Amino acid sequence: MIAPRIRRGMPQRYRYEAGKCKKCGKVFFPPRLICSACQSREFETIRLNRLGKVLTYTIIRVPPSQFKDEAPYAMGVVELEGGGRITAQIVDCDFDDVNIGMPVKIEFRRIQAEGESGVIGYGYKCVPA
User: Fold this and answer.
1) Is-above-0.90 flag for pTM?
2) Tens digits of residue pLDDT in 3-19
3) Which CATH number describes the domain made up of 49-129?
């Protein structure tokens, strides 16, 4: 069941919240308890910038069962302006147009529907900027 996991991730997923280390300034999404750079435990909550660029990507042709209707699709690691990285689906463009360094922006969209009840899970996807 995915609904509880979606519920726990709402602050980060719905408000684009990340943790910024107060000691060294490194940004973590999702937030962490300990900074991997300086081992500090003091963080402030920040909002992520919705603009970024593709660091790397792949085309998924054999997806997990819950995403079989969407295949093939592009997934990428995106570095956001101001810090932080996310892994997200890249949509609204042809696969030939996706490239490393491509500017993208984050949009809030439907990710999947769960089971027969049709509980919809929302999250972020990246579109060309």
Assistant:
1) no
2) 565 565 566 667 788 99
3) 2.40.50.840
